[in-house]
Amino acid sequence: MLSVNNINVFYEDLQVIWDVTFKIKTGEVVAIVGSNSAGKTTLLKTLSGLLHPKSGVINFLDKRIDTFPAHLIVELGVVLISGGRELFSRMSVLENLEMGAYHRKAREKKNESLEIVFQLFPILKERKNQLATTLSGGEQQMLAIGRGLMSRPKLIMLDEPSVGLAPKLVLQTFEIVETINQEGTTVLLVEQNVDSALKSADRGYVLENGRVMLEGSGEELRDNEQVKKAYLGI
After folding, report:
1. pTM for this prediction
2. What's the 3-state SS for 184-226?
3. Among 113, 146, 190, 195, which one is least packed by beta carbons within 10 Å?
4. What sign for the dihedral angle of Cα 30, 53, 85, 88?
């Protein structure tokens, strides 16, 4: 579905991503894990068109997208759920969800998408007329994911979905990720909670200082001595 080949990404003169290569197959959950400042968020911004690589190639469904603007990448079916959630705080839950269906293909199936989101997150249906700012942290995360689903993505990318959540809600968030995948959406999960991310993932990559240092199945990486020592505290 997605292939990333030797991309290099800069903020002006500062290089953040170095020769990164990885792939995602249709139907997978793929995790990219690493410490703070490893380049994970920069990588997602590049895949979503908010940044563009200085060199290298990104293909999605056999179409080269590394020069595309963000709105065209969304229309192709790639959606980023940012770590900050970035909701429209003075708009209602329903209005936030409707904003996720702004492109033509998504608008045509808006009502169908709303039903899917409300089935996945019943609390959002109960609170559809509330302002987004009045929701709890966990509910805001549900709304951010729900808004992303409204655009009918083929690949959904989640940036640190567990940040700021209580342990019980962290567990619920990863269950939601697995449900989304089981319903047919491919998932790219970027997460500092390495153990939970690799438990959920079919495959994973370890990003350190902007470079892919390790790759393997989720289970292989959880059993890797370097990963245990660096990220799992074992």
Report:
1. 0.91
2. CCEEEEEECCHHHHHHHCCEEEEEECCEEEEEEEHHHHHHCHH
3. 195
4. negative
> To the nearest 10°, the Cα dihedral for 134, 138, 140, 146?
-140
Q: SS3 of 233, please? A: coil
| pLDDT tens per residue across all 234 residues of the chain | 999 999 999 999 999 999 999 999 999 999 999 888 899 999 999 999 999 999 999 999 999 999 999 999 999 999 999 877 789 989 999 999 999 998 888 999 999 999 999 999 999 999 999 999 999 888 998 999 999 999 999 999 999 888 877 788 888 888 889 999 999 999 999 988 889 899 999 999 999 999 999 999 999 999 999 998 888 775
Cβ atoms 52, 11 nearer than 8 A: no
Beta strands in the chain (DSSP E): 2-11, 14-24, 29-33, 55-60, 63-64, 78-81, 155-159, 186-191, 203-208, 211-217
Amino acid identity, position 59: N
The torsion region of residue 19 among left (phi > 0), alpha (psi -120 to 50) and beta comes to: left
Chain-centre distance of CA 187, in angstroms?
Answer: 7
